[in-house]
Amino acid sequence: MSGDKRGRVFKVPPEAEGERLDRWLAGRLSPDLSRSAVQRLIRDGHVRINARAETKCGAHARPGTTIEVDLPAPQPAIPPSQPIALDILFEDEALIVLNKPAGMVVHPAAGNREGTLVNALLHHCGGLSTIGGVERPGIVHRLDKLTSGLLVVAKSDTVHRHLSGQLADRTMKRTYLAVIWGQLQPPAGTIEAPVGRHPRDRKRMAVLARHTARHAITHYCTAAAATELAVVELSLQTGRTHQIRVHLSHIGHPVVGDTQYGYRGTKLSRRLAELPAALKAPAVAAKRQLLHARRLEFIHPPSGERLEFEAPLPEDVARLVAAIESAQKTAP
């Protein structure tokens, strides 16, 4: 092995024949990097075999080959504060309620160290709760990067614990609006299906057997429907990762624009082609899952007052919702 400040170079010995690339490299780079960290390096193109990039973690180490690993410079533990505009609906000495735009990541992680909500919050007010650790100050609950809508942020650990308790005992109410493919039958009801990490794709979640997943319940009510699209309001009884998107996909009604759990490629093209012109144009324009955290209700920790907030629909969601509502009114 040799190396410099930027990386490491290994010559694969005969005894490593047949071993998985990620496992073999993890053994060489431990304890500085975990196996999951090595897998990220591979997937992100930081590993080369005989000068050619290898992005498959399950590739096999071959004796005699040269493996180069680029090690990105270590990131600072505390995220930098950045002057990023925030859409704040309410703020006092205890907490902040804001409307997150689609496309903004909530907190820093591998590949997203800057430009996140946390970076913006640190610049805006600095003092936030520490319960979530240095990368998630103030963050009580999260939204996916491409989901828009309401979030509450805690400024102190005491407030954070109160709000987390309301999430746990379900006194905090979160209502979402989604535009989905098809029409739900019955129009109102409950989806109860356990959600866990996908067994083959660790970036996705899936409905799984109960012993391998966590209990998950989503309540829904159809607000409007026309031909092959519907507007649905949803409330979470539990809060699993990607829960709404996974549940709707599981019952055959994925969120419009959701290419991770819904339609994509030729199947998406076929579904779009079947829509009437008034619905087709705003549906084609959807560049992300049309899911919006619309309403948020909770008890203000210091005062005990129940607060209710509603975030207006972003333009991409509002355009398709209006088209569906109009089509419903003119339907025979």
Structure, explained:
The protein is an alpha+beta fold and 332 residues long. It folds into 3 domains: 2-70, RNA-binding S4 domain (Structural Genomics Hypothetical 15.5 Kd Protein In mrcA-pckA Intergenic Region, Chain A), CATH 3.10.290; 76-169, 2-Layer Sandwich (Pseudouridine synthase); 171-332, Pseudouridine synthase (2-Layer Sandwich), CATH 3.30.2350.10. Helix content is 24%, strand content 26%. The protein is built from 8 helices and 16 strands. The protein has helices at residues 21-29, 35-43, 117-124, 157-169, 243-250, 265-273, 277-284, 315-330; strands spanning 2-3, 7-11, 47-49, 52-53, 66-70, 88-91, 95-100, 148-154, 173-181, 188-192, 195-197, 205-207, 217-226, 229-236, 291-299, 306-310. Strands 6, 7, 8, 9, 10, 13, 14, 15 and 16 form a 9-stranded mixed sheet that branches. A 5-stranded antiparallel sheet has the order 1-2-5-3-4. It has a two-stranded antiparallel ribbon with strand order 11-12. β15 (291-299) and β16 (306-310) form a beta hairpin. α1 packs across α2.
The residue fraction in helices comes out at 10-25%
Reported for the largest beta sheet, the result is: 9 strands, mixed
β-sheet strand percentage: 25-35%
CATH architecture of the largest domain, please?
A: 2-Layer Sandwich
The best one-word shape is globular
- How many strands in all? 16
CATH topology of the largest domain, by name, is: Pseudouridine synthase
Mean pLDDT rating = 92
Highest-level CATH class of the largest domain = Alpha Beta
Question: How many structural domains can be distinguished in the coordinates?
Answer: 3
